[in-house]
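From the shared-data thread, chain only:
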Amino acid sequence: MINQRLDGRVAVVTGASKGLGKQMAESLAEAGATVALVARSGELLEGVRAEIETGGGKAFTFVADISKEADVESVASEIRRQAGVPDILINNAGINIRKPLVEYTLEEWHRVMSTNVDGPFLCTRAFVPGMIEKKFGRIINVASTMAHVSLPHRTAYSGSKFAVLGITKALALELAPHNITVNAISPGPFATEMNLPLMQNPVLMAEFNAKIPLGRWGKMEEIGPLAVFLSSDASAFITGTDIVIDGGWTAQ
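Structure, as tokens:
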């Protein structure tokens, strides 16, 4: 069996302070990786770091807004200095603003795009040179089922996640000669903070559950093993693709 351990690897996870990012970071640490946790909230990051280290893992925290070029350049330098040159990058940080298009301001549109699209671009650009030098890399971009299907009031979010898939495919081709794989994960509904507006609305929850053949939302612990697999040697022949984890929603 090909090894799925990540001992000796350095992994960067953006949006690691909560939700799916936190879960993936903890799973990578359990698999042996040293994890660089990146998010805007230092207090929340410290809580994640404490959990990882209590479990025997190793983690560092870095406060940054990944939509800002200066922040990314600064945090990339600090990560290399404190944790080492990264082997793995999970571009997970993202936001969603749900409202009709005609009510959207240009500032709100830019906010979604700058976090969900500019962020992965800036982070990948910052860390790819080190991966090329190592002749090894694993890049995972977190997209969404909303990059495959959509719903009303998701114009900016769906648009940003479609862009993530395009970036994934192009970069997979560009970086393949350097032994760097680039893949995406498209989660369906999971019980994250981003989805609280849905979870607190019984009518919307019923509508969502009706769309999922398995009849339930994803469990947080179900995302981590997929991230570990795509970060490991076991996924060495997988690149340029998107793995949907949605209970069957997009199969319909």
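The chain has a mean pLDDT of 95.
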